[in-house]
Amino acid sequence: MSDNVIDKLYSIILDRMKTMKEGSYTVELIKRGKHYVAQKVGEESTEAIIASLVESQQRFVEEVSDLIYHLLVLMALENVTPQDVYKELERRMKK
User: What residue range is the signal peptide?
Assistant: First the structure.
């Protein structure tokens, strides 16, 4: 695992999935299931768009952070790693 924050956060999410730590927001999302998490990704995406259009840059950063977090939870539920995404992005950059 690398030292970047995305990989670290993904590792924490996987740990929460494994331990089902009581009181964890990640665990609450996991318990609600993939459909709920996917809905949260949609909500956070909309909030990020709105923030980019009418709110401060800081608010936009906060909403993008929420979006990335929820995407990582959904990725974990789908058994997709950040490395899978990195590889796909690298493949696309070569085009």
Answer: none
